């Protein structure tokens, strides 16, 4: 996975620093663990780490089932503890996660991949459910994070790594080898409508930098679909 | 616990006998046979090495009951599953000896998918004086044969021959983690992450599924089987452990499919120790019945526990292996060490239990005196025939001269596989690619 490799390596170093720091200061051995609820940042970095492990595990040809199950269960525990946290922005779009997960699972056992994909979807639904009804906090239009807290955005980024990519400035470089000539002239119109720009796309072009969530999903779908076709099958391990 | 006080009462006067360096590969399993005369090791490269204990001789004082290499053979080869486009590792996950029924020895060895029965025989005589063949085996010219002779058996150098007798394949979709021979000596079981199969030793083309915890929807999968073992005396009973820390005792007389346990052994979670990692550290990595059959020993990430078969609510004894790691769980999760699977072992009289840890340390707990000791298996720290010195990990506070601090523990040096001689105080410790055999010369008898 070309686009996630670079991203993941960078993140792994960050995770290491964050988790080691998390180790030192949020758990005081002299106090019982129950008395100390880990701060949101520690939970979030543990969440990211767990998602990373899950993705890594799923990418194996034949995942270690015990490892997988333990990581997923831990992820659920972390999510459950993060749920009531009000400062996290609502999840951008649940369908994005399973799409990426699907491509990652393409080489795995069919039954396992289907189940894990829906499992990740399930996780993101839980996330969505716990985030969406926030009567006390108005985050503005759903989906587009309004700048505020980059640290908490990290948790949601990895649930759909490509989503995070698309919000990055490094977008151009990552997609260099993909032929986007089909989309360049008509960024946001559906492929089936052809390439001719129409009057309705004027405002679209002006807002080109402001990505709508549904359009993001669509673009992601297409790109992931293209990648899946281009990637040759190879040995699992 | 006991380390600050007098440790003479616990048997730690082990001497380092030999260390066998299998340079090529990491040892993945260690197992004594039922008499302790033979010790088998399996490695990551699919090889099995069998050691034999030399009979004690009064002449050579230094070679009393030492183990020497007896036979080496390639048990499993790497395979390629063309359907799934996956390589099947040749690593030997487990070896179990069959009780000896004649002059030959037999053992079962397994990798992730296939179990094999091997027969080990000795040849120390050969026939000489054939009528039709000469000494080199070439056919004689019949015209030169004038009389008949009866071939006689003449002694020869000992030759150990190993041959595969059965191959039990295609029984498992998931990775085999345990095999266990039944006390009936006719059947054995093999367990993978989700299923347990019962085989007859003589039949390779079919097996009976006796436990199946695969959910209808894989999405609902939350628990896997981690280890299983037959009861040493009751051929209808077996136990299996799970990733959630529970043990299930099953009775094969109750039903063909033993999905309903007879007994469920589970310790409720300690609310004061609850963390995100509670489940991972409660996952049982090994379960062993005591020789008496009355108790079970389990190993989870931080403790070893003794369970009484008559009490399901909680273990009767819990021993801390390396509690100083409890505050490091986050880093251990990050570097995957928290998923390491340590084994545990009983001594012959069920009075002492042993398990491995990090930094090439292993721990022993005396159930009667409640003393415990930490020892190290490494060439640097112990000369041959020297008594092993107890080690100590300091967690801060007062530090003695030879103490190791928690932060300088080497987590790449893990002792996952250990075995205890069935009758004597001899232990086999696998430290990555080195095998250490320690013998207690001072107190040979079990107490």
From TrEMBL, chain A:
Q: Which InterPro entries match?
A: E2F-SERTA_domain_protein (IPR052262), SERTA_dom (IPR009263)
Ranges for the SERTA domain? Answer: 39-86
Name of the protein: SERTA domain-containing protein 1
The cross-references to PROSITE patterns, in alphabetical order and at most eight, read: SERTA
List GO terms (cellular component aspect). Answer: nucleus
UniProtKB/TrEMBL annotation, chain B:
One Gene Ontology cellular component term attached to this UniProt record is: protein phosphatase type 2A complex
Keywords in alphabetical order, please.
Repeat, WD repeat
Q: Which residues, if any, are the signal sequence?
A: none
Q: Which GO terms describe its molecular function?
A: protein phosphatase regulator activity
Q: Which residues cross the membrane?
A: none
Family label? Belongs to the phosphatase 2A regulatory subunit B family.
Put simply, this protein is called Serine/threonine-protein phosphatase 2A 55 kDa regulatory subunit B
